[in-house]
Design goal:
The chain is an alpha/beta fold. The protein is 47% helix and 12% strand. The radius of gyration is 18 Å and the shape is globular.
């Protein structure tokens, strides 16, 4: 069985923005380089944390092309390509394949609520057939956000109908029992299960999962890298405790805004606070609170971040 394509720690990377709210590719690429040098094996870009659904189709393509043009290896990137319609999903997936990406993360069609498994099977059948192979599809299970879950039965049907096309899943439900059920049902056949929650990294690796794709990895990837490398023992346990503490700190305020605040304060770069509406930057009290929470966890200063930015 081949090793997982994105095995390890993958940051759901923030999308840097300019004052006019257009993507800031230089700032984002610098952050990507730091992540890949500090514990990340790959980058899940243009997902929830990357505000993909606040960006237009042309902008999403430009962000992917811009990172690659700035030296971020396409093989390290897993762009989100799932949209609420079939045509855009296929177009973004084909674009990612053309840029040399090995896999994409695909939301279900999320506008219409409570679709049947038959309806979702028909949708993903169209995606697979229209894409035609050459790039791995990863399902994005985030029912709290999309309101459209992937059931075990649906995953099993897709794997049977399209062997080799559906490579894995990111489970952001926060329900470890569901993650474990996916591992137990499908991992033996090479299906890659990634936790979307930092607190489960050590556990899912022990149970046969592939790793994680998480928002907090934007700032805690140093410790995620230790967990992935060591797996067990005192050092791994301490690093996992740090992942759990920083995840709790990150979710104590609006998550995307909070991570932007941590990066902004760590680098001295106020531009990281820029965010697209309807999201808003943190207010001063919220910013002080999340900074204090990360500090209390012992996670500050972020290893190598200030120095890395100063050297740009």
């Amino acid at each position: 069985m081949h090793p997982p394509l994105f095995g390890g720690v993958n940051a759901a990377i923030l999308t840097a923005l300019k004052p006019d709210l257009s993507p800031d590719l230089d700032r984002m690429a610098a952050h990507a380089r730091w992540l890949l040098a500090n514990g990340c094996n790959g980058l899940g870009m243009l997902g929830t944390t990357g505000e993909a659904n606040s960006l237009g189709l042309f902008e999403r393509k430009a962000v992917l092309e811009g990172l690659i043009a700035r030296g971020i290896p396409a093989a390290k990137l897993m762009p989100g390509t799932g949209c609420s319609n079939l045509s855009d999903t296929v177009e973004l997936t084909l674009h990612a394949r053309a840029q040399g990406c090995r896999g994409v993360l695909v939301l279900p069609p999320f506008y219409y609520k409570a679709p049947s498994d038959d309806g979702l099977f028909a949708y993903f059948s169209e995606v697979v057939n229209r894409v035609g192979g050459g790039i791995a599809l990863y399902l994005y299970h985030f029912p709290q956000q999309s309101a459209v879950p992937f059931t075990l039965d649906l995953i099993g049907r897709l794997l049977k109908a399209f062997p080799g096309a559906i490579q894995g899943v990111k489970d952001s439900s926060g329900d470890y029992a569901n993650m474990k059920a996916m591992v137990d049902a499908f991992a033996a056949d090479g299906f890659e299960v990634y936790s979307g929650s930092d607190e489960y990294l050590q556990r899912i690796l022990a149970d046969g999962g592939a790793g994680c794709i998480t928002a907090a990895s934007n700032a805690n990837s140093h410790w995620g890298g230790i967990v992935y490398a060591k797996r067990t023992g005192a050092e791994a346990d301490a690093a996992q405790a740090m992942l759990t503490a920083t995840r709790k700190a990150a979710t104590s305020v609006p998550l995307i805004s909070g991570l932007r605040e941590i990066i902004a304060r760590s680098t001295g770069d106020d531009g990281w606070r820029t965010i697209r509406p309807p999201h808003l930057p943190l207010n001063a009290a919220q910013g002080d609170a999340i900074w204090a929470a990360w500090d209390a966890a012992g996670a500050l200063p972020l290893p190598g971040l200030t120095q890395a930015k100063a050297a740009e």
